[in-house]
Amino acid sequence: MPKYVLNQGSDQHKAEVVRQSEGLYEVSIDGASAEVDARMFEDGVLSMIVEGRCYEVHFSREGHEYMLLINGEHYEVTARNHRVRAALGSGSKMLVGRQVVQAPMPGRVVRVLASVGDEVKAGDTLLVLEAMKMENQLRSPIDGHVVEVTAVAGQVVQPGHKLAVVE
Q1: Which is deepest, 53, 62, 88, 156, by most CB within 10 Å?
Q2: Domain span at residue 54?
Q3: pTM of the model
Q4: Residues 79, 134 share a domain
């Protein structure tokens, strides 16, 4: 059963996913389970139905790390198997040091709320990205100071484009 660590700002959750059949999964987050119908809508976009509610999930992957954008909320998901957890001890993932905030999907920067020198807390909104007619808040992954902002309102960006840096 694949196990994951889900990070949103400073909050961390343990998740497990069990495939029931094609497109149907049993997902447990911190022990609470739900049936999830997930289908690939297009490259980097999933359509999910969870307990009768529909969600559009934008994602990108780098190794065992996934960046998700769900209803404007930014999540980092790390795949953890028993060998990786043993090597890391507790299995938790702590974000420290310089963190680059990247576009998780193609879109247009609507608003830039952070400036160089601003003090931010994990979860504070740095900028708003519009993608597929939805506004998505991109948040600081850590407590720190904004040291770089490359995003400009009106700018069109692609996945992986550096938007801001917090350290």
Answers
A1: 88
A2: 3-88
A3: 0.49
A4: no
